[in-house]
Amino acid sequence: MEAALSLEIKICGLSTAETLEASLGAGADMVGMVFFAPSPRHVDFATAATLGAQARGRAQIVALTVDADDATLAAILDALRPDMFQLHGHETPARVAAIRARFGLPVMKALGIASAEDLAALAAYEGVADRLLLDAKPPKGAVLPGGNGVTFDWNLLAGLDLARPFMLSGGLDPENVASAVRLIHPPGLDVSSGVERGPGIKDPSRIEAFLRAARAAEAEGGARRPTGDTPAGAKPTPPSPARETSPS
Ligand SMILES: O=C(O)c1ccccc1NCC(=O)[C@H](O)[C@H](O)COP(=O)(O)O
Description:
Layout: E1 8-11, H1 17-25, E2 30-35, H2 45-55, E3 60-65, H3 70-80, E4 84-87, H4 93-103, E5 107-113, H5 116-120, H6 122-126, E6 131-136, E7 166-169, H7 177-184, E8 188-191, E9 196-198, E10 201-202, H8 204-222
Parallel strand pairs: 1-2, 1-8, 2-3, 3-4, 4-5, 5-6, 6-7, 7-8
Antiparallel strand pairs: 9-10
Helix pairs in contact: 1-2, 1-8, 2-3, 7-8
The structure holds the ligand O=C(O)c1ccccc1NCC(=O)[C@H](O)[C@H](O)COP(=O)(O)O.
């Protein structure tokens, strides 16, 4: 019998019904909505409510926030009813734990990776976050802390052994995703600008191409099953303790 495929793929920064439908139809496991006003992908609460209703039960719904306070998180929870929060700011491990405890939702913490030293920071978050999202650091002077279409040296993750599932992120696109899957064998992938035709404008054909290329690489044996996963909608269990060239 063929092994079930398990690579989790998240399309982030969706803001229209059409591109959300393209993502769901092409088999995205997670769909992300950005709540960060300076972003071209920012969604208001009314739009979020509509998109949430469209996606519910078809993929995990992820609400991306940046150093949001509790009142903002509560308002997002009300409007979107996400399955998970993605924290993409400077949230400390204590803040991650507090959000998780207060809102009863799984939390994915995004961390920027540029050097081997950055990997040391992962340990502090492994015990408090349900998942980690390993992203490129923003370029100097960037307005956005993520969604910048830049890669980092994927080789830094060779041999990485985390207690929590992680998503590889940063500068992925339909052209380079198979190489990333073959090299890193990540449990999950996250993409935003690589499936756009312009800032904040998702392209259904690139979304489909991304999912197709990632799944094909996975089928060749390039991905591994997530560990310690939290199912969609489930109350979280306490965790144990500017596009660049593809890295070689
Ligand atoms: O996408 C945004 O606009 C954004 C704004 C503020 C914080 C994070 C943001 N995106 C983070 C993501 O989850 C992206 O998918 C991730 O950084 C990868 O982005 P990309 O390199 O564009 O694929």
